[in-house]
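FYI - complex with adenosine-5'-diphosphate, inputs then prediction.
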Amino acid sequence: MSIIVKNITKLYGKQKALDNVSFTIDAGEVVGLLGPNGAGKSTMMKIITCFIPPTSGEVSVNGFDIYDNSLEVRKRVGYLPENNPLYLEMYIREYLEYTAGVYGIKEKRKRVDEMIDITGLGPEQNKKIGALSKGYRQRVGLAQAMIHDPDVLILDEPTSGLDPNQLLDIRNLIKEIGKEKTVMLSTHIMQEVEAVCDRAIIIDKGKIVADDTTGHLTSGSTTVGVVRVEFNEFVDDGLLLKITNVAKVRNIGGNSYELESKKEMDIREEIFKFAVKNKLTVLSMQKTEQSLETVFQKLTGE
Ligand code: ADP
Ligand code: MG
């Protein structure tokens, strides 16, 4: 296992940015961390890369703990931070040689040549970073992230702000890189995950709401059952959440609710039993299906 995240919670003051998040990523996987702005993606990535500590929980990368062995973790992880901060006054080579120096790489020039080759920076290699287009700056960011040949790459919104052509180039580059490395990239765009990743972890308000292969996501075969039910009187959300296999409750006006099941389960019988037990009358009940894509659109408001 490459990355193991166990029960991670992160508080900024009183605000909970991550709420008991757990997942594992196997070596060689390309995983998308998908969620709307403020979901907690960057926070998760900063924790995995040892930039900030979690409030509680554990993370290990290739068996090294972020607390006990942060140096070993940093050696094995390459990180492209959000908004890719770069020294605009530096030349590409100068910057990459400087980064290589930070990691104590011996043959700096040779390694920088390799990185320029891999990331397709060749035609621009003699320019200052400030003179580059956003797409080429991202290539510099990727070169920087990979210079010490890490097993794991953490890329925070690597295509944000790129025009459609640059976006395709960078996605293709990430796909190429993903053949050899474990990659976790964050995005708020569903199509990006479809284009690049094997699997998506969908996060919203600091919690994981779905974790599945992109095959399932795109074919819509991973569905959650949603039942619309109307009772004869108002019922508290908390009470409805106690129904067996109900994962989410949404009041849709009056005494009507949408109850979402855990994966692919028919909860109608349980709802009926619940009504009987609580002396409620079911005025109507209908089962609907929705794909995770719809779920994601709902939670991102896209
Ligand atoms: P994302 O990358 O998914 O947009 P972030 O991880 O950046 O989400 O943020 C998650 C939540 O934590 C947001 O509500 C954000 O405002 C808050 N947050 C992030 N960084 C800080 C910080 N340094 N101090 C206080 N709150 C923060
Ligand atoms: Mg972010």
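The two ends are 34 Å apart (CA to CA). Residues 41-42, 82, 156 surround magnesium ion (ligand 2) (CB under 6 Å).
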